[in-house]
Structure to design on (407 residues):
């Protein structure tokens, strides 16, 4: 069984150990040491990384009572060898900040809102906890109150005592959750600092004092099953997220040529203008379609379908539909086609009442284009990839529409 040094000293990053065995873990070489300061993935906290001798330790997992150090690049030490090991402190400190911040945030949700934490995940960018409280109760104000309480505990710089307890000691503590995997309990406060503010069974790495967490920022919450998932970040990550947000604001305000403080107003204005322009474009397309429909109506004989290929914006699905409907309003049957965005489009329309079922006509003729489509008896649209056969598809549709008229 590997002796776990990190359970007694979070700050131990350099140690010597003897290689007990080499193992194969899912196709990777793994080192078993007699003692380790590497935290193995567990309880929502990812594993430490670092080096063992000259080999990189890329991941650490616990299998049975062995801690397996999965090796990356570098020479593999032989069994029996004495190796100098180093834990990546920047990664460890980040995990310590996130994990202890989670303890404080969970304690705050429990105390202020009676919301228990069901699970914790320490992600690459942010962390999450899942609460047993419905999202309706976790309003922005409720989240802000829990965040403020967690930061109050951080800035009070309370002592943290993480160690194994006797059953009697554990029974005397106000445990936030039941101890299921041993009696290592992380206690915040107590003694000369005042009352115990949190006591939670945990095998993770924790700092000496709450102040080392730096700060806790609740980012957002969402429904998660019957409960609520709260996303947050602690310590150095808060700074990283702030810089990332500032960078995005700077780039967005640069693109809109406005001051960062005016970004929201500028974005709202751009969105409003975009909507107004789309509406204006729709009006212009309808006006253009009416002119085109009048031209096509005047060019052909009264009873026959108007068969035409349209170009430009009138050849798009929206353009074809507008012209076809304008022709139908003039009492004509429209068989229109166009090529838009690399596809051939068909649109058929006629006045309501007796006549060919254009939805059925379209389904057959769009098959010529290798596509699918359908619609109502008096209006149908479809498209296919075979743009070279558009004229053929138009001719087939015109013949069928004409046949239907006769029937
Ligand atoms: Zn924990």
């Amino acid at each position: 069984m590997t002796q776990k040094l990190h359970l007694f000293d979070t700050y131990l990053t350099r140690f010597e150990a003897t290689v007990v065995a080499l193992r194969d873990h899912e196709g990777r070489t793994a080192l078993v040491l007699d003692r380790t300061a590497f935290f193995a993935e567990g309880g929502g906290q990812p594993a430490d990384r670092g080096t063992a001798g000259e080999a990189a330790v890329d991941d650490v997992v616990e299998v049975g009572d062995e801690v397996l150090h999965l090796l990356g690049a570098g020479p593999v030490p032989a069994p029996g060898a004495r190796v100098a090991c180093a834990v990546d402190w920047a990664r460890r400190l980040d995990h310590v900040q996130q994990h202890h911040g989670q303890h404080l945030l969970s304690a705050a949700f429990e105390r202020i809102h009676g919301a228990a934490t069901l699970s914790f995940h320490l992600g690459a960018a942010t962390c999450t906890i899942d609460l047993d409280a419905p999202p309706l109760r976790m309003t922005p104000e409720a989240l802000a109150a829990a965040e403020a309480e967690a930061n109050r505990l951080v800035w009070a710089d309370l002592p943290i005592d993480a160690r194994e307890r006797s059953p009697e000691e554990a029974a005397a503590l106000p445990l936030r959750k039941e101890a299921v995997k041993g009696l290592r309990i992380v206690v915040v406060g107590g003694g000369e600092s005042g009352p115990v503010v949190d006591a939670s069974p945990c095998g993770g790495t924790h700092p000496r004092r709450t102040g080392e967490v730096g700060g806790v920022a609740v980012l957002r919450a969402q429904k998660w099953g019957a409960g609520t998932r709260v996303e947050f970040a602690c310590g150095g990550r808060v700074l990283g997220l702030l810089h990332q947000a500032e960078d995005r604001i700077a780039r967005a305000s640069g693109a809109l040529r406005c001051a960062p403080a005016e970004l929201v107003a500028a974005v709202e204005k751009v969105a409003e203008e975009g909507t107004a322009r789309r509406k204006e474009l729709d009006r212009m397309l309808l006006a253009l379609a009416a002119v085109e429909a009048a031209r096509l109506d005047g060019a052909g004989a009264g009873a026959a379908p108007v068969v035409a290929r349209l170009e430009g914006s009138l050849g798009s699905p929206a353009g074809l539909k507008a012209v076809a409907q304008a022709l139908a309003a003039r009492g004509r049957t429209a068989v229109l086609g166009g090529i838009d965005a690399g596809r051939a489009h068909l649109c058929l329309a006629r006045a309501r009442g007796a006549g060919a079922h254009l939805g059925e006509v379209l389904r057959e003729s769009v098959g010529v284009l290798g596509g699918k489509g359908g619609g109502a008896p008096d209006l149908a649209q479809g498209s296919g990839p075979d743009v070279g056969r558009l004229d053929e598809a138009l001719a087939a549709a015109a013949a069928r529409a004409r046949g239907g008229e006769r029937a």
About this structure: The mean pLDDT is 94. The helical segments are 89-113, 140-155, 167-171, 236-255, 263-299, 317-329, 358-365, 390-406. The two ends are 89 Å apart (CA to CA). The domain at 285-406 is CATH 3.10.310.40 (Diaminopimelate Epimerase; Chain A, domain 1).
